[in-house]
Structure formats: C-alpha cells, structure tokens
Description:
Layout: E1 5-10, H1 27-30, E2 36-41, H2 64-82, H3 88-97, E3 104-108
Parallel strand pairs: 1-2
Antiparallel strand pairs: 2-3
Helix pairs in contact: 2-3
Amino acid sequence: xxxxxxxxxxxxxxxxxxxRGPDWFTDPYVLSPGGKSLLTLFGAEHxxxxxxxxxxxxxxxxxxxxxxxxxxxxxxxxxxxxxxGDSGWPAARTxxxxxxxxxxxxxxx
Length: 109
C-alpha cells in the first residue's frame, strides 16, 4: 500500500482469522512504506468501542467516548489529507497526546 493512510486498530482486537493477536491489524501500517499513521486504541476490541452500532450484539467493548474519538480523528485526518493547509490532523494529534487520560496513541511514518 503506497498511498497515504490512517490505520485504526484496537490493542485487544482478536480475530478468528489469525492466531497472531491484535498486532495482525497493524500490518497495513507496519509493512507499508511511509505516509501512514497508526491510531491504536487502548482497550479496544474489534468493534473499536461500538462502531457497528449502539447495543449491537457483536459490540463487545461498547465505549461511546472511543467512538467519538475515532470520529474526530478520522475527520481531522481526512480534512488534512484532502487539504494539506488544514491544521486539523496536527491539532487532533496534539490533543490526544496531551490528554490527561488518552484513549489511544498515534504513530506516523
């Protein structure tokens, strides 16, 4: 994968498709060349806090704050990717990093 990308993964995501564990979901970031960012969500399982929907049976780690964080960060990422002059992504990264109780971390290459 050579284009810019934001990869989002939960640090407790287990998949029946792999025996590797949560790091399996970070492969698009780890194995691809630069221009990528990885958002790792603390305590998040496969639904990343409830992305499929509120009270959906496959949501095992319902967390509205985590869902809101993903919404804010992906929106900021896309705005900056589409308009490099937009400062939304750097500001969102800083806000997450400086949070007293961060819900995740961001790495970029």
